[in-house]
Amino acid sequence: MSTINIPETDSNSYREFIEGNSVSVRTVSLGNEADYEKGKNVVVTHLTIEAIGKIVSEPVVIDRGGGKKVLSVVIEKSTV
Length: 80
Known about the structure:
The protein is mainly beta. The chain has a single domain, classed as CATH 2.40.240. It is 10% helix and 50% strand. It has one helix and six strands. It has one helix at 11-18, and strands at residues 2-5, 23-29, 41-46, 49-55, 60-65, 68-77. Strand 3 and strand 4 (49-55) form a beta hairpin. It is globular and about 35 Å long.
């Protein structure tokens, strides 16, 4: 399961996520875009807290370079 980190400066997004709302986040893919497809479960981290989330949108490539891609995805808290 891939990991998506919500930065410590974005506590509002993490709170919205934990409350059950969908949030848009960015993540870096090192060539494993299949891990960030719609419907996949991911580990969402914020500071030292972890929760399971689900990707509910198709990934959008925002930037690429150096063998990496920055993806934007919408996630919501998973019930799994």
